[in-house]
Amino acid sequence: MASSSVMNNHNRLSIAMERTGQWVFSQEIPTDVLIEVGEANFSLHKFMLVAKSNHIRKLIVESKEPDLTRIDLSGIPGGPEIFEKAAKFCYGVNFEITVHNVAALRCAAEYLQMTDKYCDNNLAGRTEDFLSQVALSSLSGAIVVLKSCEDLLPMAEDLKIVQRCVEVASSKACNEANFPSRSPPNWWTEELSILDIEVFGRIISGMRKRGAKALIVASALITYAERSLRDLVRDHSGNGANSSDLVESDVRIRQKEILESIVALLPSEKAAFPINFLCCLLRSAIFLKASDNCKNELEKRISIILEHVTVDDLLVLSFTYDGERLFDLDSVRRILAGFVEKEKNMAVFNAGDFREVCSTAMHRVAKTVDAYLGEIATYTELSISKFNGIANLVPKGARKVDDDLYRAIDIYLKAHPNLDEIEREKVCSVMDALKLSYEARVHASQNKRLPVQIVLHALYYDQLKLRSGVEDRNMQEAVTTKSQLQTDVSLVRENEALRSELVRMKLYISDLQKSAPGGITGTSSKSVPKKPRFFSSMSKTLGKLNPFKHGSKDTSNIDDGVDINKPRRRRFSIS
């Protein structure tokens, strides 16, 4: 590639020198000076050059040599090709001034001091006329001149050529955005995208000063990013970035500078850009190791409009360009945390309880996050802490049912078969088994990958549902049922304790009757009647605590085989 460029330059120099020789020798006067411009040599006449160029006149006059025959002008802007045209101008030979060479000719005229002050109708005046009357009369012309100025700095800047072009381009771009003159309407964004990022940024700033809307500026920025960062933002290929170690090549360093400049140009209106574009920029920022300020700005913008995010958008952030490895998921966590914080602040502002009532946007994001977890759960490098960290960021009230989260957990357990019981319980801790639908509970009850505790919860809940004949209605019913279960378990334990105490007391009285002489009667010793009084007192106490609705409070005649009435919820074992 480099050798081809050198050959092309050499061919152009040869052709230029050949053409110059043809019109110089046609003067039939021997040349008396050799002008060196880089590798090119031009045999010319001093008097023809001095007539138009004050710079060449000074070199000849101020030379210590009595007869100067060689002059080095390698510093002339535009190189040999532009000097050839300047020399033609000195000789009165016609040549064409175009939007592509007018900036270089203007700079060369300044370098050679070919101004109207030195000679009327000189090259500087001719190029100025072309600039104002032709080149800067259209947006396309101004952009082409700006592009040519990239190799003419700082002289083009000193001559105000760049500034004039920027002002014209800003004004005409605004006009085209509001009143398109041709199709497609956004053709002007493609025109701007050929410019260097620094000049492009100046045009965008000029458009803002002229009142350009955020969506217009966003359109230009999107087009520029897709063109200048094509392999990262548009093609999503990474352009050979599949290797594990990224070499900081000149191309990547330049792309990093462009990306940071684009982010700095983003308008303050947060919703001006589609979220998938912002996600692509953020992945590029992570890949190119952009500054923290750059990444933080993109994360904030994404979190503000996160309700529009799709699973694919989140996956864009999460994987390398080859799709084989997970990126650091900290960006996803920060984005989700920022969105949840925004929702909390809005709930407080609206005097609501964020824990109980979540917005439609929060419900939508919760569903998307659960589906996203299901996609990344298959990757073995995903740790439990990172998986749970993302899942726990979603408020409990944002999930009407936990079916999508259960699916993600099941996929994770399947992809990580070597987890022990404690680790599997930790994975499942982000899910509420009582918020699963009937189909999900049936699946969970037969899922051997789940911890035993989760399976028992699912079975127990289904048993209560069947006994009560109540179908799934909403999350509040599930929470109420769970609270009732805890109350019933406590009640059963108290009942069992009371029954054991009654049986023990019955055996105690029976033993006293057998051991006392003549039995326990009303005419026995004074100490004997105290026992019934003790038992009677105990009976009264137990009677007050007796939870049975239809049982007798008189427990003095209870036998071992007596069937004590139990409350409606009698069995709590899993059959």
UniProtKB/TrEMBL annotation:
Keyword Zinc applies: no
GO biological process, one term: protein ubiquitination
Pathway per the UniProt entry: Protein modification; protein ubiquitination
SMART domains in UniProt: BTB
Domain BTB: 31-99
Residue ranges annotated for the NPH3 domain, each copy included: 186-465
The protein's name in its UniProt record: Root phototropism protein 2
Source organism: Ziziphus jujuba (Chinese jujube)
